[in-house]
Structures are given as C-alpha cells and as structure tokens.
Predict the structure.
Amino acid sequence: MKAVLPALARPLIEPRLPTGLDVAWFASREDAMKMIVDADIAWVDMQRVGTIGEAVLRAKHLKWLFTILAGIDFLDLPTLRRQGTIVTNGTGINALAVAEYAVMGVLAAAKRFDEVVRIADRHEWTLNAPGQIELFETKALIVGYGTIGAMIGERLKAFGVDVTGVTRSGRDGTLTPDGWRATLGDHDWVILAAPSTDRTQALIGADELAAMKPSAWLINIARGDMVDQDALIEALTKRRIAGAFLDTVNPEPLPPEHPLWDAPNTIHTMHLSGRSQTKMFLRAATLFVNNLDAFLAGREMRNVVDLDAGY
C-alpha cells in the first residue's frame, strides 16, 4: 500500500509508521502532483487549498485522504464519494487557536484595539478610549456550535456574555438553521463558526445585516463565502452595523485593490487564526498515525467526513 506524505512531517511520523507501508515524501507541489497518482493514502496539505484539491483530482485509486484542515470545501466531494474515498479532516487540531482568535476579535472590537494601535503608531497620547464596550451582559450568537463554536462560547461566557448557539439539530438548547435569523436583532456579536457547505453560501446577506443591531459586530472565523461581501461593504459604509472582524474573506488572498480592505470599521486578520499556534503539526501527526492504525486494522477512524453533508 502506497502513502504520499509531507516531508515537513517526516520527523514526526516516520518512526511511528508500520513496516511494509510504501511511503513517498513530497516537498513541493510538483512532487505531490506526481506521487498522488497511484497512492492509496494521501496527506497532501499545501499552503494553497486550491492546489490540494487539484492534486487530489489526479489520484486514480485513493482509499483514504487525510487533511489537517477542518473545512473541506476545496475538494471535489462528489468525485471522492463516487470513488469510495474516505476523507478525514483536522477538526480539533486548530480548535483552541481559532477559538482564542475569535474571542480576541470580540475583545478587539469591543475596545477598538485596532484604533489604539494606530494612535500609538502616530506617537499620539489620547485620553479617550476608542472602544468602551464591556463584554459583561452583552449577547453573542454563534452560528455553528460545533467543536470550535462551543469553545468560543465557553470562553465568552467567562466574560459574562450571554451565548446562543446554532446547530443543525437544535441540540442542547441551541437554535436550528430556520430559527436564528429572527433573533439577529437581539445580539451584539454575530459569530460565524459553521462549516462551509452549499447551504451556507452567502449565509449573511443584505437581509441579515439589516436585521442586526446598528451597534453589532460580525465576527467571521469560518469561511469568506458565508458572507455576501458586497452587502457587507454597503452595510459598513452606511454604518448599518458597527463593524466586522474578518479572519476569512473571498477570495483569498484578497486582492490589494479589493474595496473590502478599506471598508469602515473592518479588522482583517488574513486567515491567521489556525496558524496562531506552535502545536498544529504535532497534533496533526498524532491524529494521522492514530487514524492510519485504525484504517489498516479496519477500525473506526476519527474525524470521518460525511461527504453528502460536506463536513
């Protein structure tokens, strides 16, 4: 059985691999494109997610695809489903880092820390705090109350924030996909943490933005395509909402001339939330090795993606 794995992870996983596994280590996009053609197992994560999807399409008989990423919208899921490929994702690997980033976004927005930094850059001393919102007794709506969403909720509750989650099933007192929009006007923070699927395209559009409080902030640590960016730019420009903290946008990278860069009261963090840590590869290596053992033994694997649902 042949596996194609990243050379960067080699020191972490090679000593833990079973004997008899034929491993090819890729160090470049070109290597990955060639090696995956006849691979049974592949871990071909690269900087550009589009390149990962392109590489996977070259595989002829891929049995298992591992990715460190939680969102898999960059993959051709119908093709993988037809081929019978098992896909496991990286849900949980970056969860702590992303949750902390989302909380940072709320705090930065509440205290307008972006403005504080700009004032300091100008070597000015101000007596007026740019942001004066206290998180205590504010309300947050977290659309997507899975692993990351729940972590965000737990951390915000520690600040005294009243948290409402949204899940597909409405479990544990959360709202269902058809019930959260009616509550948008009740919340100070609208946080997107849901997986990207066909159903979440432009989840936040002109109607949703109009329903939000003028003092509310949109926090997106999910996927850029969940927001109608033209509608968001208009809402920000016309001050219909207070601001937006955007870790993800569409497209990525955002072109330098894109108007979203200059939209008022917008904080951009260039999809760095999951990268703001030092343990990502260590956790990924452990997850891969454990799932490899399960795969070869025919046992249940962790983080198996429902290719019909898209997550």
In short: The chain has a mean pLDDT of 96. Residues 2-93+278-297 form a domain with the Rossmann fold fold (CATH 3.40.50.720). The first helix runs from residue 10 to 13. The radius of gyration is 21 Å.
